[in-house]
Amino acid sequence: MTDPLDSTLQELTAAIRTRRLSPVEVVDAHIRRIETVNPLVNALVAARFDEARDEARSAEQRLASASPEELPPLFGVPCTIKDFYAVRGLPQTGGLVRRRGEIPERDAIVVERLRDAGAIVLGVTNVPEGGLWLESDNRLYGRTNNPWDVTRTAGGSSGGEGALIGAGASPFGMGSDIGGSIRLPAAFCGVAGHKPTARLVPNHGHWPPLSGEHAGYLVCGPLARSAQDLMPLLRVIAGPDERDAEARPLELGAPSDVRLDRLRVFVVEDGPVKPAGVVRDAVRRAARALEDRGATVRPARRGILAEAFWIWAAMMDDAGSANYAELVSGDPNLPVLRELLRVARGRSNHTLPVLAVVAAQKLLGRLPGRGLDGSISLGRALQREIESQLGDDGVLLVPPYSRPAPRHMAPLLTPFDAGFTAVFNVLGLPGTQVPTGFDHRGLPVGVQVIGKRGKDHLTIAVACAIEDALGRLGRARPELAPERSPLSGRGPRASA
Questions:
Q1: With bands split at pLDDT 50, 70 and 90, how would you rate the model's confidence at 25?
Q2: Segment 296-308, tens digit of pLDDT
Q3: For 390, how many CA atoms within 13 A lie in the half-sphere containing its CB?
Q4: Average pLDDT estimate for 73-78
Q5: Catalytic pick among 7, 22, 82, 226
Q6: Can 157 be counted among the known catalytic residues?
Q7: Which residues make up the CATH 3.90.1300.10 domain(s) of the chain?
Q8: Which of 7, 22, 157, 170 is catalytic?
Q9: Does residue 388 carry a catalytic annotation?
Q10: Confidence class for position 363, pLDDT limits 50, 70, 90
């Protein structure tokens, strides 16, 4: 029998269409799993379980009279959505106390497209305060924990999605990424995730609304149990929409057309900081798997990502960064020192990492001669170098982070490590994160596959080949149970 909790999206859709599983069975199984694991991971923050069950029953009635060919591609499959997206009737807070009570009346374009494709939304998931840090923690809902070790971060800003999918509680979800916010949670939680090419997927209905260069740096994309699921999801959500002036038409290729014997793989083992040995080993293991299938493997230029963090920071700043103080509090002159004192007494509406980010922006904004022009030039030159080297049949294999999932709060001491993912946002390149195994502590490790703009099908195909060679982590669910941990989340709020 097909187990809904470890089945891929394609396995679930096939089982539903052939009536081996009913939509009600699949939705109920995932709701029960959420109810089991959420007190520990604190990932789902607002639920619509009653509505989801009603939609599953309606899908079951339709299934009784419809042929498989008449059904939409995601028919009857449940999913979860990052809090940053508008989901009608559910909170869209961005993790901010000041947005408490914000309930959109209309879905974001991406959510609308998922529903039209037959998906059933179970609820929305936790994020960092304002999306400004890679730890999904805020004063509204608390902190999300990693399903493989609840003392460690699930990442951010799509940390709730990574945790639920990694725990077997959601088949797939929607995240967004402006500096690694899909790929980091996917890497830390042992799932697959894809950051699309810039402007491929509409951002309309995502908070905060962005325009200009920032609308290309932020991308909406999927996380899923298997790399095999990413392309079907991308096909559902990609493409322009008249409501989104920033999205661009771009023809998607087919992963099945990718020939591994023509693939050129460039291996990156260093970066803005030196990765841990287990991370470098994960990249090498993926490279060997591709070489065994006929790919040509060679090292990338040494130091190619040495300035990655500063390139990202400079290009973000050049595009006109938002005032972070105003974003999180509504006050552009938020008194950071006072709020830090309030944090120490447990009385602030803000988290320590976000206040540190706000303070850093205020400080850097007052420093003369930040050398941004040099980093921006380096970024543009790096984009040209990478795309020229990769062409239409080349990829980079890159560590997603310096190490497996860190302990809570530890990334505050290592901010430059996010450069491994962030630089590819400002370069506009697609990136697919795929798990490659576990370290000696049982924490997932993985690798990013980076391609030329518009080659999303290539990075996904390569990720699928790595997954096929090394095995899918999603088959091994973490054994979360209340008695295994003293930690507890706050649990989801039911929709009204």
A1: very high
A2: 999 999 999 999 9
A3: 25
A4: 98
A5: 82
A6: yes
A7: 9-305+376-488
A8: 157
A9: no
A10: confident
